[in-house]
Amino acid sequence: MADSLVIIPTYNEKENIEKIIRKIFSLAIPLDVLIVDDGSPDGTGSIVKQLQTEFGGRLFLEERAGKLGLGTAYLHGFKWGLGKQYDYIFEMDADFSHNPEDLIRLRDTCLKGADMAIGSRYIRGVNVVNWPMSRVLMSYFASVYVRFIMRIPIQDATAGFVCFSRKVLERIPLDQIKFVGYAFQIEMKFKAIQYGFNVSEVPIIFTDRTEGVSKMSTRIFREAFFGVIQLKLESLFKKYN
């Protein structure tokens, strides 16, 4: 078993799932992959099961009944990975918006002392490909808003490409994480900082999906907008130790 686990939540990703799995397994470092599939009606789970016959012991599948949300998928994966004693656990999208090659850089950053390494779109300007300007602006200013409200030094607070060392996930009370979309990503970073962990950003180039359908919605964005205020207010009355 590898010491690192890549968690990929899926819902209707049949166009991408086999390619992303094969790419990860082609990398120069050993990585295991856990797919958390929310009952994709397009057969994503079936494709993963077929690939498990080829990648036995490296590729795992957790199937859930229905679309339960990105945050809950990651929390499910975190607990699964902690139970299997992985030292490093990644969050990653299935659609190649995150370059699998950058998994190596994120892991190296943790090996060199970071407790949490974030693949950042905004640490060196704006590194986003194929997004309409409206979405670039929404995402960029969402991170500005988060930094202003929460007073955390993270340039890309909504990033979903992350490497955690296991001690971070063991320390954060996962059962108390309350958000599911963008706000989930913000909450995990905020709590890691509040608990005193070393959080580092690694510049990446984010490329929007070319196949499949985006899961972004106004509900997810609204949750993040108001969730930031809620998290900040709660932190004023909570001790982190």
UniProtKB/TrEMBL annotation:
Signal peptide limits: none
SUPFAM superfamilies in alphabetical order: Nucleotide-diphospho-sugar transferases
Every Glycosyltransferase 2-like domain range: 6-172
Keywords: Glycosyltransferase, Transferase
Sequence similarity: Belongs to the glycosyltransferase 2 family.
Protein name from the UniProt record: Polyprenol monophosphomannose synthase
Organism encoding this protein: Sphingobacterium suaedae
Lineage: Bacteria, Pseudomonadati, Bacteroidota, Sphingobacteriia, Sphingobacteriales
